[in-house]
Design brief:
alpha+beta, 6-stranded antiparallel β-sheet, Glyco_hydro_38_cen_sf, alpha-mannosidase activity, EC 3.2.1.24
Length: 1055
């Protein structure tokens, strides 16, 4: 009788672990039999390419002999290898693999086609020669493109450290070998049983059944007797065929390769990462017919289409079969906080249109797994594009509070709802492991409401996506007793099943999805934020001007050609730079070299396009006298002080300027007050300043700046002592000791790890006011149109601030034009406005609306939001009084206990060691108001600060109108945000409006142009049905329409 050995769980598990280990006992364990009969390559030759060259260029290079053991570099360089391979007789008819490990990323090529990516990081070093190229072939000639970088870049001191630019990579393996598939299947059997035995709770019997089955298999296997292989496999098969119950939770498994469009590598490397990863996916699809793969970001598809047409053709075939699944509907996986509302719209517009054109598919789910918070206006914008579902997982990273749901309804600020899901495994890079499956069901917070969740598997960022190991592991987990069911499914199947069976049980979350981490990203790389805002406005303006030139040209049958392709190109550059690791400031320096080139391209190109459009609108003629024209690209009449250089003003003979009408400023420029109609232009005729502004210096050394709206007392370091509205003695600045407005403060800014990403709560404990001026504060401009003074403040021995504090006649705000010479190490610069306002909340502008957050720390959910995002303004108010802070390029705010803080500059050192170093210029303003911020015009004032009236010198012929308004609205509650040409119709414009106050509204839109019809349309510019458009009333050139709170409405006007 055989002795029955009592099993000790730990030793039995470790026995199995060593039995399949790639490290221990390889000479006698199962893993050591995976590859056999290895054989050297016939020859390897090498070419050091001058950059990321194409295959066609590379094969013309000069190749020289090389061998394993040699190293290649430096970082980011490219090396090509030509491999000549002959299969020896003893390998014929076997499954032969090329084993290549350059300890870097690489791509196998043949005949100009990329075949499969390789990566040393995840041991993805084998290419199945015989399976891909033919089992009966015995000779192969291949190329391998080696990228001198690993999948997560080459951080010198840590993963996110600035890259080590001088690394080399050793070619440690280059050979062929027979892959023993029977051994491979046994390894997966043992591994899966091992993991079930290890991770299934000891309160159930199933884990022990797995332990004993695994141990029995190992006992049964004689590695020198292949007859035992099939017996052992049958033992495992019998175990895995024991099925689950019908009520068991189901994981909807989807292949995925999260691909950052740039991060610890530049954009150009992402192009190659896509080819490496997606070629691996295609090879697996050829082998595994039930494998599905989800893939977002139209930009990356376009990169592959342009650079790898053969691979793209294969992708399109699998898209047709429903297995390679475009998701997301956006151009890139953008940042979820900082882009403007119109930029969000364009992400979906260009993304959805690309997928419709290329694949005849509209995405029904928004796919954004890895960004740093989600604006509460996103649900409505998604709905505009036919998207009613949302997937992410990033909120699992929150430091303080755990989000209470995984499947739920997300409701935006207008009431739009989308079905939302966070994969409860807290990752979009699962590996098909038992531990992950069990963690998924353990974490799931909506048990009883739904028994379904998404399981995303695959290596991201160049790890080549799902691997064969993952697919084979999950084949064991499809329906096995003791584990949730793991089924290969699609996003459509998951969301449809939830909608069909569970949606009535789900909870609702209203407002933003705030990530309690990475809130330093609202501020890092300030120049990127500044250029993003600036380019958003430049594209807004040029689209309006080009659209007016185009419609006028159609009506008058003139020769102006609308720059469709160029505007698409410029928008796509901006949208690319809004990727969620670029715009937040969390990429390496190389990325920002590219980003700023793109910004410069946008600005320069917009200037040319605007000039061409204006020349067409005004009918510019070289035979006419030059005239200064002021352009207003906003939807309301504006009366402001503008700067007209002496050299560009209208000649004195034609337009005499009285000293009462103009002011020569400290820079020698001519200032004038002008009035310009809504979305139009006017000849720059200065109007008399009825209420001049003034500046005085008091005996105590403070300065008083006044205009018809407000009065401010400023001390000699630029701080506001008092800020009052005329006719009201109330000081908007707090009267508590030591409280001053415009107080610069410095903080230590040392996070736990994520340097460019995180500002921690404890930074607030290190507040240091800046109190030392380096020069005497002086008056610069003395009115009547503008008064100003100059302040210079010391930050440190390396850094300083120079600020012009100014007040214009007719302006409701005090403006601070700021220049900072910044050379700090992990410091955070903010400016404070301690207000006298008593309120439980503050309001922040977001995309197409605004959002309230608390002004206190009552709960952990409150104090975790110590740093929040906002756009052009934030306000705090009580009944009939409030204070707003406006800005032209900042996104980070903090309001606590009535103190409003605007975040200005950070100085992290990873992943870009030079982040934010240098000179910065930006403008912010403070605006006290009576009534509400809505009625006081804070929203319009912030737009005006960001988009000043523009003065151009043009040559209009006689008879051209001196002023003209193309479009206007009669209700300030509604913002006419965008005027653009239709994407598909040459004779149509799209007008996008939104309700900005947060209430119902009725508005009359007046057009100066003779439109023939108007219809409501969705974000894709598809006309909506009559029920939706029935509230439109059209009388002549006036359109009346109604809005719900924060509603976005798009109109299609035909001409």
């Amino acid at each position: 009788m055989e002795q029955v050995t009592l099993k000790h769980k730990r030793t039995t598990l470790e026995r199995a672990d060593k039995f399949i280990s790639p490290v221990y006992f390889n000479d006698v364990n199962l893993r050591g039999r995976l590859y056999r009969d290895s054989h050297p390559l016939k020859s390897i030759t090498h070419y050091a390419a001058p950059g990321r060259v194409s295959y066609q260029q590379a094969v013309k290079g000069k190749f020289t002999k090389t061998e394993t053991g040699q190293s290649f570099g430096p970082t980011w360089s490219t090396h090509w290898f030509q491999l000549e391979i002959e299969i020896p007789d003893n390998m014929k008819g076997e499954e032969v693999h090329l084993l290549w490990n350059s300890n870097s990323e690489a791509l196998v090529w043949q005949g100009g086609n990329p075949l499969q990516g390789l990566s040393g990081d995840y041991d993805r070093i084998s290419f199945p020669l015989s399976k891909v190229l033919g089992k009966n072939k015995t000779r192969f000639s291949l190329y391998v493109e080696m990228a001198c970088n690993r999948i997560l870049g080459e951080g010198k001191d840590s993963m996110i450290g600035p890259p080590d630019m001088n690394k080399t990579f050793t070619l440690s393996q280059a050979e062929i070998a027979v892959f023993d598939r029977e051994v491979y299947e046994l390894i997966i059997d043992v591994e899966t049983l091992h993991d079930m035995a290890k991770h299934i709770t000891e309160e159930t019997e199933r884990g022990y059944q797995a332990l004993y089955t695994m141990n029995q298999m190992i006992n049964m296997l004689d590695l020198d007797d292949r007859a035992t292989y099939s017996k052992a496999h049958q033992l495992a098969k019998k175990f895995f065929q024991q099925r689950n119950g019908q009520s068991q939770h189901t994981l909807y498994a989807m292949g995925h390769a999260h691909m950052d469009s740039a991060w610890l590598w530049p954009y150009a490397e992402t192009v190659r990462k896509c080819a490496r990863s997606w070629s691996c996916t295609i090879r697996l699809m050829e082998q595994y017919p039930h494998f599905t793969f989800t893939c977002s970001q139209a930009q990356q598809y376009e990169w592959v289409k342009d650079n790898y047409p053969g691979l793209y053709t294969q992708i399109k075939e699998f898209v047709k079969k429903g297995r390679f699944i475009p998701v997301g509907g956006t151009w890139v996986e953008m940042d979820g906080n900082i882009p403007s509302g119109e930029a969000f719209v364009r992400q979906f517009l260009y993304g959805q249109r690309f997928f419709m054109k290329e694949f005849n598919k509209k995405c029904s789910e928004f796919w954004l797994p890895d960004t740093f918070g989600y604006s509460p206006q996103l649900p409505q914008i998604m709905k505009l594009f036919g998207i009613s579902r949302f997937l992410t997982q990033k909120l699992s990273w929150s430091l303080v509070n755990k989000f209470p749901h995984h499947t739920f309804w997300w409701e935006g600020i207008d009431g739009s709802r989308v079905l939302s899901h966070f994969p409860p495994g807290d990752s979009y890079e699962m590996h098909g492991k038992v531990e992950e499956v069990l963690r998924t069901i353990k974490n799931y917070k909506d048990k009883g409401r739904s028994n379904k969740s998404v399981y995303l598997f695959g290596f991201g960022d160049g790890g080549n996506g799902p691997s064969e190991d993952m697919l084979v592991r999950m084949s064991r987990l499809q329906d096995v007793d003791g584990l949730p069911k793991v089924q290969s499914k699609t996003p459509q199947e998951f969301f449809s099943d939830v909608e069909k069976e569970d949606c009535g049980n789900l909870c609702r979350w209203r407002g933003e999805l705030y990530l309690e981490l990475h809130n330093g990203t609202y501020t890092t790389h300030a120049k990127v934020k500044k250029m993003n805002r600036f380019c958003e406005f430049r594209l807004h303006d040029v689209e309006f001007l080009a659209s007016m030139a185009h419609i006028q040209s159609l009506i008058k049958k003139a020769a102006y050609k609308f720059p469709t392709e160029e505007l698409h190109r410029l928008w796509k550059l901006l949208l690319l730079n809004q990727f969620h690791d670029v715009l937040p400031g969390t990429s390496i320096g190389l990325v920002y070299e590219d980003a700023h080139q793109y910004y410069d391209d946008i600005v320069g190109s917009c200037q040319k396009l605007s000039s061409n459009a204006l020349a067409s609108i005004i009918a510019d003629s070289a035979h006419s006298n030059p005239v200064s024209m002021v352009i207003n690209c906003m939807g309301w009449q504006r009366k402001e002080v503008v700067t007209m250089s002496q050299s560009t003003g209208t000649p004195a003979k034609k337009q005499k300027k009285s000293p009462e009408l103009v002011q020569i400023d400290s820079q020698g420029n001519t200032l004038a007050m002008v009035t310009v109609p809504s979305y139009g232009y006017a000849e720059a005729k200065p109007i008399k300043c009825e209420k001049p502004c003034s500046i005085d210096k008091k005996q105590n050394g403070t300065f008083i700046l006044r205009n018809e709206y407000l009065s401010a007392e400023i001390d000699n370091v630029g701080r506001i002592i008092t800020l009052t509205l005329n006719g009201d003695e109330r000081n908007a600045i707090s009267s508590e000791p030591g409280c001053y407005g415009n107080q610069f403060v410095m903080y230590d800014d040392i996070p736990l790890y994520w340097d460019a990403w995180d500002v921690m709560d404890y930074h607030l404990e290190t507040r240091k006011p800046l109190l030392l001026s380096t020069k005497k504060t002086t008056i610069q401009d003395q009115g009547p149109l503008r008064v100003s003074l100059v302040v210079e403040i010391k930050i440190s021995d390396q850094s300083s601030i120079k600020q012009v504090i100014s007040l214009d006649t007719g302006s409701p705000y005090l403006k601070f034009q700021t220049q900072v010479d910044w050379h700090e190490n992990r410091k955070f610069l903010k400016v404070e406005f301690p207000t006298s306002v008593h309120s439980m909340s503050a309001t922040y502008e977001i995309q197409f609306g605004h959002h309230q957050r608390t002004n206190h720390d009552n709960t952990s959910w409150d104090w975790a939001q110590f740093e929040v995002f906002g756009h052009k303004w934030a306000a705090i108010s009580e009944h009939n009084f409030g204070v707003a802070v406006l800005n032209d390029s900042k996104y980070g705010y903090s309001t606590r206990d009535g103190v409003m803080r605007l975040s200005l500059l950070r100085s992290p050192k990873s992943p870009d060691k030079d982040a934010d170093m240098g000179t910065h210029s930006f403008t912010y303003a403070v605006m006290p108001f009576q009534g509400t911020f809505q009625s006081a015009g804070v929203i319009q004032a912030a737009y005006e600060l960001n988009n000043p009236l523009d003065v151009h010198t043009l040559n209009p012929p006689k008879g051209v109108q001196e002023n003209k308004s193309f479009f206007s609205v009669d209700n300030p509650q509604v913002i006419l945000e965008t005027i653009k040409k239709s994407e598909d119709l040459d004779n149509a414009l799209i007008l996008r409006l939104y309700e900005s106050y947060g209430g119902q509204a009725k508005v009359k839109l007046t057009a100066d142009l003779p439109f023939t019809s108007v219809k409501r349309c969705n974000g894709l510019e598809e006309i909506l049905d009559n029920e939706v458009t029935s509230d439109l009333e059209v009388i002549g050139r006036q359109i009346t329409l109604s809005f719900k709170p924060f509603e976005i409405i798009s109109l299609l006007l035909k001409f």
